Structures are given as structure tokens and as C-alpha cells.
Amino acid sequence: MEIEFIEEKFNEIMGELEKEVMEVLGDQSLDKKQTNLRMKPLTSTKTILMNALDSIKMAKKLGDEAIEEN
Predict the structure, then answer these.
(1) CA distance 35 to 32
(2) Fewer Cβ within 10 Å of end Cβ, the chain: N or C?
(3) To which H or E segment does residue 19 belong?
């Protein structure tokens, strides 16, 4: 499993999320409530992606350790 490739793709997605966040924050026509409502899915998506990446890294580490033990 190529963790570097996976991390690269996750970073591309994070970059796109950051662009969306900046668009929402820069939209002066939105009030605070609307801004918060639009930010929640973006924040949740980032959290889910970070957790997924951590899980992938942990699975890779545990797999490598299991191989080394045998």
C-alpha cells in the first residue's frame, strides 16, 4: 500500500475543502448563521478525512508489524 500516494490525494482534497471554506468565509452576503450552516459540512468532511487517513496509517503500521513478526 502506497501511503504517500494516499496522503497526496487526501492533501489535494483538503486543498479543495480549504478553497470552499475561503469562499464561504469571503461571502459577505451570508450572515453568521448561514456561514456556520455552510461551514459545518466542510468541517465534518475534513474531520472524517483526517480520521480515515489516520486509520489507514495505523492499519499499514499494524500490517507491517505483523509481517515482521512472522
Answers:
(1) 5
(2) C
(3) helix 3-26
